[in-house]
């Protein structure tokens, strides 16, 4: 007993590295990612964010304490009031208008990932749901840090994806990620080995679905 977040990444080390160091991520870093692939990713991410907001609403429903209820409420507000507005603005800069976003067909990879997270939360408790959400929240922060440590990464105007990296390296985002890590470390400290094994499976599955999401972008798959 006495688990922590890093035990989850260690339990699926190869999948975790395949997600963080995916070719899509490398293309964001060195600026070589095809624009059409990025645009497809942005479109599907709009749908992803809407379901992610629903997952925070589910976290509110699954909360037993006022503190957890408030945390879920803050997460839902952050997505609705900040992330989605930013995303719509970012899509506009990439030539994707709101009318287009409103009628997008949902790719299978988007469906699989978002419904997996929602089902995991429905089936399990608040910790299951947070563990299913962790690859998204913690992974993107780790990706920004990893990219900044790679010699191939280009920063500034020369890289069309610089704003994407900047978003996830920001103090605001890294702070939210650290708060989530603290919450997870506290909860994981008390779980039994059998319970940890269940949570490690959820974490690995969600990580594999993040890998599929990158691949969907690269392949422009629907
Ligand atoms: C496929 C996919 N995975 C993760 C993120 C990252 N992300 C989505 S919402 C959120 C924080 C909400 O407050 C973060 C970090 C993404 N955009 N798309």
Short description, anyone?
The chain has 222 residues and is an all-alpha fold. It has helices spanning 5-11, 13-20, 23-30, 35-61, 66-93, 98-102, 108-123, 126-148, 162-169, 171-188, 193-219.
Helices and strands, with pairings:
Blueprint: H1 5-11, H2 13-20, H3 23-30, H4 35-61, H5 66-93, H6 98-102, H7 108-123, H8 126-148, H9 162-169, H10 171-188, H11 193-219
Helix pairs in contact: 1-11, 2-11, 4-5, 4-7, 4-11, 7-8, 7-11, 8-9, 8-10, 8-11
List keywords for this structure.
222 residues, Heme Oxygenase, Chain A, globular, binds the ligand Cc1ncc(C[n+]2csc(CCO)c2C)c(N)n1
Give an overview in words.
The protein is mainly alpha-helical and 222 residues long. It has one domain (5-219): Up-down Bundle (Heme Oxygenase, Chain A). It is built from 11 helices and no strands. It has helices at 5-11, 13-20, 23-30, 35-61, 66-93, 98-102, 108-123, 126-148, 162-169, 171-188, 193-219. The longest helix has 28 residues, at 66-93. The mean pLDDT is 95. Bound molecules: the ligand Cc1ncc(C[n+]2csc(CCO)c2C)c(N)n1.
Inertia-based shape: globular
Question: What number of domains?
Answer: 1
Query: Roughly how much helix do the residues carry, as a percent range?
Result: over 70%
- Beta-strand content bin: under 5%
Largest sheet: none
Q: Structural class from helices and strands?
A: mainly alpha
Classified by CATH, the class is Mainly Alpha
Give the H and E element order: HHHHHHHHHHH
Secondary structure tally, helices: 11
User: For the residues shown, what is the average pLDDT?
Assistant: 95
CATH topology: Heme Oxygenase, Chain A
**Architecture, according to CATH?**
Up-down Bundle
Overall number of strands? 0
- Taking all Cα atoms into account, the compactness measure Rg is 17 Å
């Amino acid at each position: 007993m006495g688990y922590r977040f890093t035990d989850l990444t260690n339990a699926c080390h190869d999948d975790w590295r395949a997600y963080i160091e995916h070719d899509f991520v490398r293309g964001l870093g060195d600026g070589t990612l095809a624009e059409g692939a990025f645009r497809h990713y942005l479109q599907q991410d709009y749908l992803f964010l809407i379901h992610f907001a629903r997952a925070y609403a589910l976290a509110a429903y699954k909360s037993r304490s006022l503190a957890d209820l408030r945390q879920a409420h803050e997460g839902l507000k952050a997505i609705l009031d900040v992330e989605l507005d930013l995303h719509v603005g970012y899509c506009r800069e990439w030539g994707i208008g709101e009318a287009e976003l409103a009628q997008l067909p949902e790719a299978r990879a988007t469906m699989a990932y978002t419904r997996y997270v929602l089902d995991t939360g429905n089936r399990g408790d608040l910790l299951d749901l947070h563990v299913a959400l962790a690859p998204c929240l913690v992974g993107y922060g780790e990706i920004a840090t990893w990219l900044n440590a790679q010699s191939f990464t280009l920063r500034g105007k020369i890289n069309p994806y610089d704003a994407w990296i900047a978003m996830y390296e920001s103090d605001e985002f890294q702070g939210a990620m650290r708060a989530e890590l603290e919450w997870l470390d506290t909860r994981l400290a008390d779980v039994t080995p059998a319970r940890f094994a269940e949570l490690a499976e959820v974490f690995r599955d969600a990580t594999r679905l993040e890998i599929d999401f990158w691949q969907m972008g690269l392949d422009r798959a629907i």
